[in-house]
Amino acid sequence: MSEQPSRRNELSGNVNGGVVQSGSIHGDVVFNSPALPMTETQRRWEERQRRILDREEAERRRERDARRRRAEGEQRIFEDYLTFVRLRMRLAAVSLIVTGGTVALVGVPWLFGMVSIKPALPWVALFSFSAYCWAQRWKVLRDARAGREIVIPTDRKEW
What we know:
Blueprint (H helix, E strand, L loop, with lengths): L5 E4 L3 E4 L5 H5 L13 H72 L9 H26 L13
Antiparallel strand pairs: 1-2
Helix pairs in contact: 2-3
């Protein structure tokens, strides 16, 4: 015959025999009290909790709407900035063509010794400035297309 399992009982010592949970023996005991009428204090407490939850939900909704409006505003500023950069890039490209043509018209006769180079110097400076402006704006548009971070000046006069 096999030996019965034994468990240590902290209150009175060892328990010999089959070890069974008390819920299995007696059934799971559930105490259901009949619904008591709600007291005035309980009703006020539940109303207070409901008001607190409603206030928190309204605050979360306001914060979410504020974040959405801020993001839309930033997106609008970003699009305006890119439109401005594209316009300035086109102007710089036109300026490059005009100043490059003028430098070429003055530079070719200068190469053959027909005219002095002095009249072409302001046009060369303007050509260099136009090339710099075009390259700067090209870099901004390249970064925007690549999804890189673009620093937008806060003052529109610096655009």
